[in-house]
Design a protein that fits this description.
alpha+beta, Phosphatase 2c, domain 1, about 30% helix, 5-stranded antiparallel β-sheet
Length: about 325
C-alpha cells in the first residue's frame, strides 16, 4: 500500500510538471517543434545502481536523454531469486517529457509484473515483461499527452542481463545496443539492434499502409510527414495515426561467452560520428579498463569531438573478464 501511495504521488507531481506551459507548449501538428523556454542543461536525478555511464548535453540547447539502470535486481522466478540487470536509455525529442517519464517509471513497472505467480518459462516471461513495460509507459504517457497537449516522444533501448549469462535487448527507435567481443587483436562489434526508419521495407510498409508519407533526401534518413525520422517511438501522439508504434523489437536471448567483453547501450547521438565498431576499437585500444565510468565519459567526448550535434549518452557493462 505504501508503494502504491508513493507511486500515485509521483504520477501526480509528474503530471503537474508536464502541465506547466513553460516546459512544453504544443504547436499544430504541421509545425511540431519543441518549446525550449526553460533550458534543461543538466540531466535530472536518475535511478542508477552499479552502472558505468556518461551523458552530456553536447551541442544541443537542451538535454533530452535519460538513463535508468540497475545491474543487481533480485527477482523471484518460481523459486530462488535470480539476478537480472537492466540498462535503459531513453532519447527524448520535442522536449524531455516522454524520456523523463519513461526513465522514472520503467523499473517500477518492470518489477511490478507477477513473476512469482507465473508457470511459463521464466526467460520468456522476462522477455514479455519488458515489452509490456514499454507499451504501458507509452499508453500512460500518450494519455497524459492527449490531456495536456504534449507532442513529446522518446526512443527506448533496454537491455536485460539474466544471471550474468544471457542478454536480451528491446528497441524502439534509433538508439543502439551491441556487444564488443574479443577477436584476434581487436574487439568485434556484435549489434543487437536495428534502427526503425523507412530504410527498412517492413517499417516503411506499415507507415505507408496507414497513410504516412516519407520524403527522401540523399545521404539522410527519410522523414515521415517532412519532419520525423523514425517509425517507432514512445509518445509522438499526433503521428500514431500514421503507423508509429511503441512496440519494441526484441532480440532473442543471446548466450554470453568468455570472449564477450562489454555490453554497450547508447543514444543515437554517439552514432552521428562513431560506428559501433569504432566504439569497440576505442575500448580495445584503451590502456586502462579499471574505471569504466571514465571510459564511458571518454567515448562521449570522442563522439562530441568527432562532430556529433546531438545529446550523447552511453552505458558500459563489463562482461566476463571485462
Amino acid at each position: 500500500m505504501k508503494r502504491i501511495i508513493i507511486y500515485g504521488c509521483f504520477i501526480a507531481c509528474l503530471v503537474g510538471i508536464l502541465m506547466n506551459p513553460n516546459v512544453i507548449k504544443p504547436k499544430p501538428e504541421e509545425k511540431i517543434v519543441a518549446d525550449n523556454s526553460v533550458p534543461n542543461t543538466t540531466m535530472s536525478s536518475i535511478p542508477t545502481q552499479n552502472c558505468h555511464f556518461a551523458s552530456i548535453q553536447g551541442r544541443r540547447s537542451y538535454q533530452e536523454d535519460r538513463v535508468t539502470c540497475n545491474l543487481d535486481l533480485k527477482i523471484s522466478l518460481f523459486g530462488p531469486e535470480k539476478n537480472v540487470g537492466v540498462v535503459a536509455v531513453f532519447d527524448g525529442h520535442i522536449g524531455s517529457a516522454a524520456s523523463e517519464m519513461a526513465s522514472k517509471l520503467f523499473l517500477d513497472k518492470f518489477l511490478s509484473k507477477n513473476y512469482g505467480e507465473q508457470s511459463v518459462n521464466h526467460m520468456e516471461f522476462l522477455k514479455s515483461s519488458v515489452v509490456k513495460t514499454i507499451e504501458e509507459i507509452d499508453a500512460e504517457f500518450s494519455k497524459a499527452a492527449v490531456e495536456y497537449e504534449l507532442y513529446s516522444g522518446s526512443t527506448a533501448v533496454v537491455a536485460l542481463i539474466y544471471n550474468k549469462k544471457h542478454v536480451l535487448v528491446a528497441n524502439v527507435g534509433d538508439s543502439k545496443a551491441f556487444i564488443c567481443s574479443e577477436k584476434t587483436q581487436s574487439l568485434e562489434a556484435k549489434e543487437l539492434t536495428e534502427d526503425h526508419n523507412a530504410h527498412r521495407l517492413d517499417e516503411r510498409a506499415r507507415i505507408e499502409a496507414s497513410g504516412g508519407k516519407f520524403e527522401f533526401f540523399p545521404n539522410y534518413v527519410p522523414l515521415l510527414m517532412g519532419h520525423f525520422p523514425m517509425t517507432r517511438a514512445i509518445g509522438d501522439v499526433p503521428l500514431k495515426k500514421y503507423g508509429i508504434i511503441a512496440t519494441p523489437e526484441v532480440t532473442d536471448w543471446v548466450k554470453l561467452t568468455s570472449k564477450d567483453e562489454f555490453l554497450v547501450v547508447a543514444s543515437d547521438g554517439i552514432f552521428e560520428s562513431l560506428s559501433p565498431q569504432q566504439v569497440c576499437d576505442f575500448l580495445y585500444e584503451a590502456e586502462d579498463h579499471e574505471d569504466l565510468s571514465l571510459l564511458a565519459k571518454q567515448i562521449v567526448q570522442k563522439a562530441f569531438s568527432e562532430g556529433s550535434r546531438d545529446n550523447l549518452s552511453v552505458v558500459l557493462v563489463p562482461l566476463g573478464s571485462g
